[in-house]
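> forwarded from #structure-qc
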């Protein structure tokens, strides 16, 4: 049996619930999901400033998960905030939902599109594509131009926009798959895949299966080189809890 920690790096507990449910929906029998949020930070992550703040919370939660003996950590925000820093701290695998969704998309299609939240997070997604080496696999990126927390409102407006952009993308982008670019969209992928008859990929569920796969293969974060544990040094003030 596996214990997987799913970290919603923002402090909106409704989104943590959405993310936790999406993870549990695909978890193998015997895999337990612990969905958490930082004790302090930003209510949503919509840019570099938010990501820098969220990364500290991610590190705090990774340390907690490590103490609980989890078998892997998931960073459930499409910016993958703090991913490499978290890998330095962790002994077990750490997977970001953007990298997870992008990897899965390349396994089922030659080109994919991304549907995300704000225009400025489209630019951040482009940085991730470059960083992960998927720039040439992503044919187009779309923003529903609504804030992240619109996905937690009951109006369904954000969900309707995601569906519209997925339909537009499958008709116009010449792609074989669509990646949902926000942890808050995690509950939409399965229904959209069925309705639109194109793989619509959510990074939360993709990351759960990648952690299960890595665990089954006996693979974990390398401590040879730059992902070795951080150099030991005294941490002051608010960071002292990160020791
Ligand atoms: N591109 C995004 O919408 N990123 C995100 N901000 C959050 O707060 N959660 C996400 O997944």
């Amino acid at each position: 049996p596996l214990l997987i920690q799913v970290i919603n790096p923002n402090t909106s507990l409704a989104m943590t619930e959405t993310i936790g449910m999406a993870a549990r929906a695909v978890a193998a029998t015997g895999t337990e999901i612990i969905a958490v949020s930082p004790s302090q930070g930003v209510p949503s992550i919509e840019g570099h400033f938010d990501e820098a703040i969220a990364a500290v919370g991610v590190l705090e939660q990774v340390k907690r998960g490590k103490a609980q003996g989890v078998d892997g950590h998931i960073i459930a925000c499409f910016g993958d905030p703090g991913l490499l820093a978290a890998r330095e701290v962790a002994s077990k695998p750490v997977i970001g939902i953007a990298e997870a969704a992008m990897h899965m998309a390349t396994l089922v299609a030659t080109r994919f599109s991304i549907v995300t939240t704000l225009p400025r997070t489209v630019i951040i997604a482009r940085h991730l594509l470059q960083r992960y080496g998927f720039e040439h696999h992503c044919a187009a990126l779309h923003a529903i131009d609504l804030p992240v927390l619109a996905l937690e409102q009951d109006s369904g407006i954000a969900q309707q926009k995601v569906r519209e952009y997925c339909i537009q993308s499958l008709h116009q982008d010449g792609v074989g798959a669509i990646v949902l670019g926000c942890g808050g969209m995690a509950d939409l992928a399965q229904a959209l895949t069925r309705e639109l008859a194109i793989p619509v990929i959510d990074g939360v569920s993709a990351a759960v299966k990648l952690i299960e796969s890595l665990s089954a293969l006996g693979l974990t974060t390398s401590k040879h080189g730059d992902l070795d544990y951080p150099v030991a040094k005294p941490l002051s003030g608010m960071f002292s809890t990160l020791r």
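QC bot note: Residues 10, 44-45, 77-79, 116-117, 121, 148, 181-184 surround 2AL (CB under 6 Å). The two ends are 29 Å apart (CA to CA).
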